[in-house]
Write a structure and sequence with these properties.
The protein is α/β, with parallel strands linked by helices. It has one domain: HUPs (Rossmann fold). 47% of the residues lie in helices and 13% in strands. The protein is built from twelve helices and eleven strands. It has a seven-stranded mixed β-sheet with strand order 7-8-6-3-4-5-11, sandwiched between helices. It has a two-stranded antiparallel ribbon with strand order 1-2. A two-stranded antiparallel sheet has the order 9-10. Strand 4, helix 3 and strand 5 form a beta-alpha-beta unit. The longest helix has 20 residues. The radius of gyration is 20 Å and the shape is globular. The C terminus is likely disordered.
Amino acid sequence: MRCRVCKGPIVIELRQHNAAFCEEHFLRFCRDQTARSIKKFDMFGTDDRILVAVSGGKDSLALWDILLDLGYTADGLVLGLGIGEYSESSTEFARTFARDRDATLHEINLQESYRFDVPTAARETGRVPCSACGLSKRHLFDKTALELGYDVVVTGHNLDDEAAVLFGNTIRWKDDYLARQAPVLPARAGFPRKAKPLVRLGEREMAAYCLLRGIDYIVEECPMAEGNKHLEYKALLNELERTSPGAKMQFYFGFLDRAARHFEPEDAVEHLISACVRCGSPANGEVCSFCRLAERAAPVVLLPTRSGRDS
């Protein structure tokens, strides 16, 4: 098989596209697919300030690299979640990427700023670790973007991620989640715009992109994610994709084209009735979910000691 574009030797075959590419044209393919998603879903423009939610993994670092290559103003934010060596390595990969590209990386360490970490929060609150982690990430990415004047927060969620989330939400018919299963969510009171530019690319493509671009990233899965249903759904969909190439793309984009509108809420009025008395973020009561989590995980500390630091 030869490159679909130049007929040269290939580095990757993409069965879902019935195509194969050489190194040059595969990298171009990744950039083009990302640009296509940005344009199709009107995610952001060239004048927007973009904050990339960086994990130190292949997807977020590849996304950051692509956005910089496309000419966007994109800075990163990495969170120190306190998950032992895994968190330390993740942060170091993010720092290395930013240093090599002279890019801006913001850092927030949960333990230093809020006196708790994800393992402690999970233990003290009875939440599963992924729940405590997800809540902390959403709060801190949103809060930092608003405080520092970014127009949009982008995440490295790829097609595999989104198809797995959609699968889980569908088999449980979680209407509220299905209503927000979109590649871009508009800004609303207390929340920045959010976008997922990698929805046309899968994990395999992102791993190959990083390899060809010389981007080092953390390979291991989070040690606290064991038993996560999301990983099980990914495995099921990967098996389906193996026998039916393109199934994940058809499933996800078929939902967006044919079904997503049926889950849009009829009443668009905001249900958040107040601002958190501790941090100012949107809340259903006096205190937001993140501050309640922090209180239970670190009862002696009600407010952050600092907002983070840049490196």
